[in-house]
Amino acid sequence: MARRCRGDGHPEGEVDDRVVGFYESLRGRYPDFPPYPDDSPWMSVPLDVGIDHVSVCMSFGEGSWPALDLIFDLAGRCGLTIYDPQDGKVIRPHS
Please, which domain of life does this record's source organism belong to (predicted)? Predict the structure, then answer.
């Protein structure tokens, strides 16, 4: 899935309800559209959303830790997998 998400073409179809729930909850706290809050963790907006993924580029530093905590929490609740392309880790958070 990671290779497919990084590629030029994304699969077409209905967006997975788990992805929708994750994205809506995430952007409810950290919007990816103006006006951006002072504590926005995003380096690139809007977030990349496909039928089976949400891809985020995070800012560096401790200011992003609350967003990372939320991402892990939401991924666990939604039954989603986290992939970190910087170190190649695949993480299945617990719900």
Answer: Bacteria
CA 54/CA 80 separation, integer angstroms: 10
> What span, in angstroms and rounded, lies between the C-alpha atoms of 56 and 25?
14
Q: Is 4 a residue whose pLDDT tops 80? A: no
Which regions of 3-94 does DSSP assign to beta strands (E)? 48-49, 54-55, 82-84, 89-91
pTM, 2 dp: 0.85
* Rg of the chain over all Cα atoms, to the nearest angstrom: 13
User: Residue ranges per domain, the chain?
Assistant: 13-91
End-to-end CA distance of the chain: 22
